[in-house]
Amino acid sequence: QVQLVESGGGLVQPGGSLRLSCAASGRIVSINAMGWYRQAPGNQRELVAHITSGGNTAYEDSAKDRFTISMDNAKNTVHLQMNSLKPEDTAVYYCDATIITQGIGRYEAHYWGQGTQVTVSS
After folding, report:
1. Among residues 116, 109, 108, which one has the least CA distance to residue 82?
2. pLDDT tens, 69-120?
3. Edge to edge, what strands does the sheet with 77-82 contain?
4. Backbone angles phi, psi at 13, to 5 degrees
5. CB atoms < 10 A from the CB of 107, how many?
6. Which stretches of 9-101 are DSSP H helices?
7. Mean pLDDT of the residues in the chain
8. What are phi and psi of 6, to 5 degrees?
9. Strand 91-102 vs strand 28-39: parallel, antiparallel, or unpaired?
10. Per-residue model confidence as pLDDT tens digits over 27-54
11. For residue 45, with 0-12 CB atoms within 10 Å meaning exposed, 13-18 middle and 19 or more buried, which class applies?
12. Which of 1, 6, 75 is nearest to 35 (CA)?
């Protein structure tokens, strides 16, 4: 099985920065992609940023010029550097990963972390 463990969330002032990290562990053959989603109360879960193992990235429009996603392939870890944070960034942030795992044979599976709270408030 595969587990995703997030860290780095917390409280921050508007305009401040946070760096989220997510480490994947378990029966991992390879990781195809990792990303971050967020969900505020009453809202749909939305994609914030996504990165493939080849380094291709995608961002939600409001995050595009403020956030940077990166992957450390050797450590099976993805990071999200969040700068110029706004109150509307407040949400639970979830790590996700698409992973080739080993069972009877190798197959692709998708996993979610438990989420980490980001609160941007003065």
Report:
1. 116
2. 999 988 999 999 999 999 999 999 999 999 999 988 999 999 999 999 999 9
3. 2-7, 18-26, 77-82, 67-72
4. -75, 150
5. 11
6. none
7. 96
8. -95, 155
9. antiparallel
10. 999 999 999 999 999 999 999 999 999 9
11. middle
12. 6
